[in-house]
Amino acid sequence: MQVFVINPNATESMTDMAALTARRVAAQGTEIRSATGRGLSPRSIEGFADEAMSVPSMLEQIREAEAAGAQATVIACFDDPGLDAAREVATGPVIGICQAGIQAAMVLSKRFSIVTTLPRSVPAIEDLVLRYGASHHCRKVRCIDLPVLSIESDSQHAFSLLAGEIARARDEDGAEAVLLGCAGMSEMTESLSRATGVVVIDGVVVAVKQAEALVGSGLQTSKANAYARPRIKV
Q1: By C-alpha distance, which of 137, 157, 134, 136 is closest to 146?
Q2: Averaged in consecutive runs of 10 residues, what is the pLDDT profile of the chain (234 residues)?
Q3: Are residues 104 and 193 in the same domain?
Q4: Which of 83, 149, 151, 208 has its CA 20 to 30 A from that of 46?
Q5: What's the predicted TM-score (pTM) here?
Q6: Residue 222 belongs to a domain
Q7: Do both 58 and 109 map to the same domain?
Q8: C-alpha distance from residue 148 to each of 143, 152, 153, 160 (Å)
Q9: Has residue 225 been placed in a domain?
Q10: Which among 129, 123, 9, 134 is positioned nearest to 77, based on CA atoms?
Protein backbone atom coordinates (compact mmCIF):
# COMPACT_ATOMS: atom_id res chain seq x y z
CA MET A 1 0.00 0.00 0.00
CA GLN A 2 1.26 3.47 -0.85
CA VAL A 3 -0.01 6.55 1.02
CA PHE A 4 0.89 10.04 -0.19
CA VAL A 5 1.37 12.69 2.52
CA ILE A 6 1.27 16.19 1.07
CA ASN A 7 2.30 19.23 3.08
CA PRO A 8 0.64 22.09 1.17
CA ASN A 9 3.04 24.73 2.45
CA ALA A 10 6.58 25.27 1.16
CA THR A 11 8.58 24.42 4.29
CA GLU A 12 10.51 21.18 3.79
CA SER A 13 11.19 20.63 7.50
CA MET A 14 7.45 20.51 8.21
CA THR A 15 7.04 17.91 5.47
CA ASP A 16 9.84 15.89 7.04
CA MET A 17 8.12 15.99 10.44
CA ALA A 18 4.76 14.90 9.04
CA ALA A 19 6.43 12.10 7.06
CA LEU A 20 8.37 10.95 10.13
CA THR A 21 5.14 10.75 12.13
CA ALA A 22 3.37 8.94 9.31
CA ARG A 23 6.14 6.35 8.93
CA ARG A 24 6.27 5.79 12.67
CA VAL A 25 2.63 4.69 12.81
CA ALA A 26 2.23 3.13 9.36
CA ALA A 27 1.60 -0.60 9.21
CA GLN A 28 4.22 -2.96 7.88
CA GLY A 29 3.90 -2.96 4.12
CA THR A 30 2.65 0.64 3.91
CA GLU A 31 4.96 2.94 1.97
CA ILE A 32 4.74 6.63 2.88
CA ARG A 33 5.60 9.06 0.11
CA SER A 34 5.71 12.75 0.95
CA ALA A 35 5.94 16.07 -0.85
CA THR A 36 6.14 19.79 -0.08
CA GLY A 37 4.06 22.51 -1.69
CA ARG A 38 5.71 24.25 -4.61
CA GLY A 39 5.09 27.18 -6.92
CA LEU A 40 3.16 29.92 -5.10
CA SER A 41 2.64 27.84 -1.95
CA PRO A 42 3.38 29.92 1.18
CA ARG A 43 5.98 28.94 3.77
CA SER A 44 3.17 28.42 6.28
CA ILE A 45 -0.62 28.39 6.05
CA GLU A 46 -2.07 30.84 8.53
CA GLY A 47 -5.09 32.30 6.81
CA PHE A 48 -7.59 32.04 3.98
CA ALA A 49 -5.31 33.57 1.34
CA ASP A 50 -2.52 31.16 2.30
CA GLU A 51 -4.93 28.28 1.87
CA ALA A 52 -6.00 29.45 -1.58
CA MET A 53 -2.41 29.89 -2.76
CA SER A 54 -1.49 26.36 -1.68
CA VAL A 55 -4.26 24.50 -3.49
CA PRO A 56 -3.23 24.58 -7.21
CA SER A 57 0.17 23.03 -6.53
CA MET A 58 -1.33 20.49 -4.15
CA LEU A 59 -3.88 19.28 -6.72
CA GLU A 60 -1.16 18.86 -9.33
CA GLN A 61 1.00 16.91 -6.88
CA ILE A 62 -1.89 14.62 -5.93
CA ARG A 63 -2.43 13.78 -9.60
CA GLU A 64 1.28 13.04 -9.99
CA ALA A 65 1.37 10.89 -6.87
CA GLU A 66 -1.58 8.78 -7.99
CA ALA A 67 0.02 8.33 -11.42
CA ALA A 68 3.10 7.04 -9.56
CA GLY A 69 1.07 4.52 -7.55
CA ALA A 70 -0.36 6.32 -4.51
CA GLN A 71 -3.60 4.71 -3.35
CA ALA A 72 -4.59 7.35 -0.77
CA THR A 73 -3.66 10.93 0.11
CA VAL A 74 -3.29 12.67 3.47
CA ILE A 75 -3.39 16.48 3.42
CA ALA A 76 -1.06 17.41 6.29
CA CYS A 77 -2.48 20.82 7.11
CA PHE A 78 -5.09 21.34 9.83
CA ASP A 79 -7.10 23.80 7.73
CA ASP A 80 -7.91 20.93 5.31
CA PRO A 81 -7.19 23.28 2.36
CA GLY A 82 -8.75 22.26 -0.95
CA LEU A 83 -10.15 19.04 0.51
CA ASP A 84 -13.20 18.82 -1.74
CA ALA A 85 -11.18 19.82 -4.81
CA ALA A 86 -8.60 17.15 -3.97
CA ARG A 87 -11.32 14.52 -3.72
CA GLU A 88 -12.57 15.59 -7.11
CA VAL A 89 -9.20 15.09 -8.82
CA ALA A 90 -8.18 11.95 -6.88
CA THR A 91 -9.28 8.37 -7.34
CA GLY A 92 -8.21 7.06 -3.94
CA PRO A 93 -9.42 8.36 -0.56
CA VAL A 94 -8.24 11.85 0.42
CA ILE A 95 -8.05 12.45 4.17
CA GLY A 96 -7.81 15.88 5.78
CA ILE A 97 -6.10 15.80 9.16
CA CYS A 98 -8.67 18.14 10.74
CA GLN A 99 -11.63 16.00 9.71
CA ALA A 100 -9.84 12.79 10.70
CA GLY A 101 -8.82 14.25 14.06
CA ILE A 102 -12.31 15.54 14.84
CA GLN A 103 -13.83 12.17 13.98
CA ALA A 104 -11.33 10.42 16.25
CA ALA A 105 -12.01 12.89 19.09
CA MET A 106 -15.75 12.24 18.83
CA VAL A 107 -15.15 8.49 19.13
CA LEU A 108 -12.68 8.71 22.01
CA SER A 109 -14.44 11.36 24.12
CA LYS A 110 -17.79 13.01 24.72
CA ARG A 111 -16.33 16.51 24.79
CA PHE A 112 -13.06 17.77 23.34
CA SER A 113 -11.20 21.00 22.65
CA ILE A 114 -8.73 21.97 19.93
CA VAL A 115 -5.47 23.83 20.48
CA THR A 116 -4.01 25.62 17.46
CA THR A 117 -1.37 28.25 16.73
CA LEU A 118 -2.59 31.81 16.13
CA PRO A 119 -5.83 33.65 17.02
CA ARG A 120 -6.55 34.18 13.32
CA SER A 121 -6.66 30.40 12.85
CA VAL A 122 -9.51 30.00 15.35
CA PRO A 123 -12.44 31.17 13.15
CA ALA A 124 -11.40 28.91 10.26
CA ILE A 125 -11.19 25.89 12.56
CA GLU A 126 -14.52 26.77 14.18
CA ASP A 127 -16.03 26.72 10.68
CA LEU A 128 -14.56 23.25 10.09
CA VAL A 129 -15.93 22.00 13.41
CA LEU A 130 -19.38 23.13 12.28
CA ARG A 131 -18.93 21.62 8.82
CA TYR A 132 -17.96 18.25 10.27
CA GLY A 133 -20.95 18.17 12.60
CA ALA A 134 -18.95 18.44 15.81
CA SER A 135 -20.14 21.74 17.26
CA HIS A 136 -22.00 20.04 20.12
CA HIS A 137 -18.92 18.01 21.04
CA CYS A 138 -16.16 20.63 20.64
CA ARG A 139 -15.99 22.76 23.77
CA LYS A 140 -13.57 25.38 22.49
CA VAL A 141 -10.93 26.15 19.87
CA ARG A 142 -7.94 27.54 21.75
CA CYS A 143 -4.61 28.97 20.55
CA ILE A 144 -1.12 29.45 21.92
CA ASP A 145 -0.56 32.68 19.92
CA LEU A 146 2.60 31.33 18.27
CA PRO A 147 3.28 31.30 14.50
CA VAL A 148 3.43 27.91 12.82
CA LEU A 149 7.14 28.10 12.00
CA SER A 150 8.00 29.00 15.60
CA ILE A 151 6.81 25.56 16.75
CA GLU A 152 9.89 24.09 15.13
CA SER A 153 12.36 26.92 15.77
CA ASP A 154 11.47 27.19 19.48
CA SER A 155 10.05 23.76 20.27
CA GLN A 156 10.61 23.93 24.05
CA HIS A 157 8.65 27.16 24.33
CA ALA A 158 5.93 25.75 22.08
CA PHE A 159 5.70 22.61 24.22
CA SER A 160 5.32 24.68 27.39
CA LEU A 161 2.57 26.80 25.85
CA LEU A 162 0.76 23.74 24.51
CA ALA A 163 0.92 21.89 27.81
CA GLY A 164 -0.52 24.92 29.61
CA GLU A 165 -3.34 25.38 27.12
CA ILE A 166 -4.21 21.68 27.15
CA ALA A 167 -4.38 21.78 30.96
CA ARG A 168 -6.73 24.77 30.75
CA ALA A 169 -8.90 22.92 28.22
CA ARG A 170 -9.08 20.03 30.69
CA ASP A 171 -9.87 22.19 33.72
CA GLU A 172 -11.92 25.05 32.21
CA ASP A 173 -13.63 23.41 29.22
CA GLY A 174 -14.20 20.00 30.73
CA ALA A 175 -12.44 18.55 27.70
CA GLU A 176 -11.84 14.82 27.90
CA ALA A 177 -9.54 14.91 24.88
CA VAL A 178 -7.60 17.60 23.06
CA LEU A 179 -6.91 17.70 19.33
CA LEU A 180 -3.71 19.41 18.19
CA GLY A 181 -4.57 22.00 15.56
CA CYS A 182 -1.35 22.00 13.51
CA ALA A 183 0.60 19.29 11.70
CA GLY A 184 3.81 20.81 13.08
CA MET A 185 2.82 19.68 16.58
CA SER A 186 2.66 15.98 15.67
CA GLU A 187 5.84 14.76 17.35
CA MET A 188 4.82 16.31 20.70
CA THR A 189 1.62 14.27 21.06
CA GLU A 190 2.76 11.52 23.43
CA SER A 191 4.79 13.88 25.62
CA LEU A 192 1.87 16.29 25.92
CA SER A 193 -0.47 13.48 26.90
CA ARG A 194 1.93 12.33 29.62
CA ALA A 195 2.44 15.87 30.88
CA THR A 196 -1.26 16.71 31.11
CA GLY A 197 -3.01 13.40 31.70
CA VAL A 198 -5.33 14.13 28.78
CA VAL A 199 -5.88 12.09 25.62
CA VAL A 200 -4.02 14.18 23.02
CA ILE A 201 -4.85 13.46 19.38
CA ASP A 202 -2.71 14.24 16.35
CA GLY A 203 -4.50 14.46 13.01
CA VAL A 204 -1.56 13.13 10.99
CA VAL A 205 -1.55 9.85 12.91
CA VAL A 206 -5.26 9.19 12.68
CA ALA A 207 -5.41 10.31 9.02
CA VAL A 208 -2.71 7.82 8.02
CA LYS A 209 -4.45 5.00 9.87
CA GLN A 210 -7.80 6.00 8.33
CA ALA A 211 -6.23 6.01 4.87
CA GLU A 212 -4.84 2.51 5.45
CA ALA A 213 -8.23 1.26 6.62
CA LEU A 214 -10.09 2.66 3.61
CA VAL A 215 -7.59 1.34 1.08
CA GLY A 216 -7.50 -2.00 2.89
CA SER A 217 -11.29 -2.13 2.59
CA GLY A 218 -11.04 -1.67 -1.17
CA LEU A 219 -12.77 1.72 -1.11
CA GLN A 220 -12.19 4.70 -3.39
CA THR A 221 -13.63 8.20 -3.69
CA SER A 222 -17.12 8.15 -5.20
CA LYS A 223 -17.39 9.66 -8.67
CA ALA A 224 -21.17 9.35 -8.87
CA ASN A 225 -21.98 13.04 -8.41
CA ALA A 226 -20.28 15.69 -6.26
CA TYR A 227 -16.72 14.42 -6.76
CA ALA A 228 -17.16 13.40 -10.40
CA ARG A 229 -14.38 14.74 -12.60
CA PRO A 230 -15.63 17.64 -14.74
CA ARG A 231 -16.16 16.87 -18.37
CA ILE A 232 -13.83 18.60 -20.81
CA LYS A 233 -15.75 21.31 -22.62
CA VAL A 234 -15.11 21.66 -26.35
Answers
A1: 157
A2: 97 93 96 96 91 96 97 97 97 98 97 95 96 96 89 87 96 97 89 94 97 97 90 53
A3: yes
A4: 208
A5: 0.93
A6: no
A7: no
A8: 11, 8, 9, 15
A9: no
A10: 9
